[in-house]
């Protein structure tokens, strides 16, 4: 049985089909592995994987509690990998990269570090519930060497809330689980637009300042 063969789904084969096969073959651990990969490779859509895991639970492939726990464990595993990637980059490498980027200053990194020092715990917790940021929030946590116990607890709690909501939605919607993808997709598009607007504003403001400085 192919869980993705439902009306309205965008992808029925390829990588997502392979992930579906994991769930069908090994149940909960397959869902956890799929979510871990989603954390490391954001193009893999969590809005498909999580409600799909809920639908699989409604069909008896795994228990509902197992779907939630395994996907949360997968989120945690992926986040830890990204945390250590950020730790490997560290402040010195991050500053060196920033110094080579056009329109970016090392002082921007300093301000980001100061912001993370004040709001890092909230950022890690809430970031786990925001598309795109779900994965990337682990990188600055690693760069700033947030204490691992705090990082694990905040990541687990934030992931648990997000995963539970989407897994439950898929469980309750049954064969209409794919509806979740469309609604979460709207949320993700809003986030993308907000990020693009912020980047455009940053670039425009920086160019104006540079021109004024030259004048």
TrEMBL record:
It is found in: Cell membrane. GO terms for cellular component: plasma membrane. The chain crosses the membrane at residues 64-85, 151-174, 186-208. It is a multi-pass membrane protein. Pfam families: VTT_dom (PF09335). It comes from the Bacteria. Keywords: Cell membrane, Membrane, Transmembrane, Transmembrane helix. Residues 44-171 form the VTT domain. InterPro entries: DedA_domain, VTT_dom. Belongs to the DedA family. This is DedA family protein.
